[in-house]
Design a protein that fits this description.
The complex is a heterodimer of chains A (about 260) and B (about 150). Chain A is of the alpha+beta class. Helix content of chain A is about 35%, strand content about 25%. Chain A contains two helices and twelve strands. A six-stranded antiparallel barrel of chain A has the order 1-2-5-4-3-12. A six-stranded antiparallel beta barrel of chain A has the order 6-7-8-11-10-9. The longest helix of chain A is centred in the N-terminal third of the chain and has 69 residues, at about 35-100. Chain A starts with a helix and ends with a strand. The model of chain A has no long low-confidence stretch (mean pLDDT about 85). Chain B has about 150 residues and is an all-alpha fold. Chain B has six helices and no strands. Chain B has helices spanning about 1-20, 30-40, 45-60, 65-85, 90-115, 125-135. Chain B is globular. The model of chain B has no long low-confidence stretch (mean pLDDT about 85). The interface of A and B includes residues 8, 15, 32, 34 and 38 of A.
Chain lengths: ~260, ~150
């Protein structure tokens, strides 16, 4: 026990003496060279740490980049959508502008704001009305052809009866052989071309245009093409179906023109 | 073989200690080695191994040879003395002892440096560092006990 205490006493004494000796001199560091060994250990540790953490870091970076790119893509898609919409609108307006220049009876251009509330009729609601010069029985066209006629009008809105509506009729003629008839809506996509005699030889795909003889539609407006001819049914006339050039589901802007 | 193992463990402890930092405070794990030496080997060997660890630590620090030599040697001796003479080991007592010994070690180093060299930091900062180092070491008190217990 005494030996241990003596040892402790000597140890403390030596330590304090050593520190006192060094206090005004250069530190005495016998094992300083161990630092280089420790530094090698640190190097190895850093290498191992880098080896382990690098794949995870790359993964996180990719994850972050992926998230950023997705956000950017989403933003760009939205912008692209806006630009595409603007481009299409511009195209439509150009078409209407071309019509305005071409048509002598041009009144105004109107945008389709809604479909008619009656599920059984084929009508569209336009954003212009009496105040813009639109009147009943005026004609609506696009660059592709006839759309219909104004069936009703209010100061700010107009109701457009499409040529597929069962109440629609127009005097027409076949563009090539000049045979005249009447085109009526059927309530479906195809219209019926009436009063074409049996002896007339018609071709599928033949163009049908307005004749102007009904005093409502100006002559020469394209309407559609013959999609079906049936001569077998009894009666004086052939059964002919016409598909309109204008797709009712894609109408956005129409040009309104006066009666002939 | 035993001393080679001690050398490897000591070297690794220095490596780990130099690599870690909590709240900008480097932990004092080498004091655990000194404690362990004292607890397992008794006061004399605890003093010897502790002072050797302190000698290495001072040499690596490159400032003054003595502060860690003295403190670690004392801790090695005290650990052996306390664990053999004063109390029966329990986990809580183990934690408290390690905390106190860590504080004693850090305080001894701070005082030695302040007296024989330059003050390493302000008193407030030193107190914070000492307390934090003792808290880091506290959980290890559960594992440090004599062979027989």
């Amino acid at each position: 026990m005494l030996g241990k205490r003596l040892l402790l006493f000597l140890f403390i004494l030596i330590s304090l003496s050593l520190m006192t000796y060094q206090s005004n001199r250069t530190p005495f560091l016998p094992l300083k060279s161990l630092n280089s060994a420790l530094n090698v250990f640190y190097d190895i540790k850093v290498s191992v740490k880098e080896f382990i953490s690098a794949p995870f870091r790359r993964m996180f970076l990719r994850e972050e980049e992926n998230r950023r790119l997705k956000t950017e893509l989403s933003q760009l898609l939205k912008e692209q959508q806006v630009w595409r919409e603007a481009f299409r609108e511009n195209q439509k307006l150009r078409e209407v502008l071309a019509l305005k220049e071409k048509e002598q009876h041009y009144v105004t251009a109107a945008r389709v704001v809604a479909r008619g509330t009656d599920q059984w009729s084929h009508t569209l609601i336009l954003d212009k009305g009496l105040t813009d010069g639109i009147k009943k029985d005026m004609v609506a066209i696009t660059d592709k052809g006839l759309v219909g006629k104004i069936s009703d009008v209010s100061p700010s809105y107009a109701y457009l009866l499409l040529l597929t509506d069962i109440n629609f009729s127009a005097a027409v003629r076949l563009q090539e052989n000049r045979t005249e008839g009447v085109l009526s809506g059927t309530g479906f996509r195809a219209c019926q071309l009436k009063y074409i005699p049996y002896e007339e030889e018609l071709k599928l795909g033949a163009a049908v245009v307005t004749s102007g003889l009904d005093s409502i539609f100006p002559g020469g407006i394209p309407l559609g093409y013959i999609s079906k001819i049936n001569k077998k049914e009894s009666g004086l006339f052939q059964y002919i179906e016409v598909i309109p050039y204008v797709d009712n589901t894609k109408i956005e802007v129409v040009a309104i023109i006066r009666r002939a | 073989m035993k001393y080679l193992l001690w050398a490897v463990v000591t070297f690794l402890t220095f490596g780990i200690q130099g690599s870690l930092s909590f709240f900008d405070i480097t932990p004092n794990f080498t004091v655990i080695l000194a404690c362990y030496a004292g607890i397992r080997e008794g006061e004399a060997k605890g003093l010897f191994i502790g002072s050797l660890i302190g000698l290495i630590e001072d040499s690596l620090a490159g400032s003054l040879l003595g502060p860690n030599l003295l403190s670690k040697g004392l801790v090695g001796y005290l650990a052996g003395f306390l664990y053999s003479k004063f109390f029966v080991w329990t986990p809580v007592l183990g934690i408290v002892t390690i905390m106190v010994l860590t504080m004693a070690d850090s305080f001894a180093v701070y005082m030695s440096r302040s007296i024989f060299d330059t003050m390493p930091s302000g008193i407030g900062a030193a107190a914070f560092i000492i307390v934090m180092q003792s808290l880091f070491n506290a959980p290890l008190g559960i594992f440090l006990k004599k062979k027989s217990e």
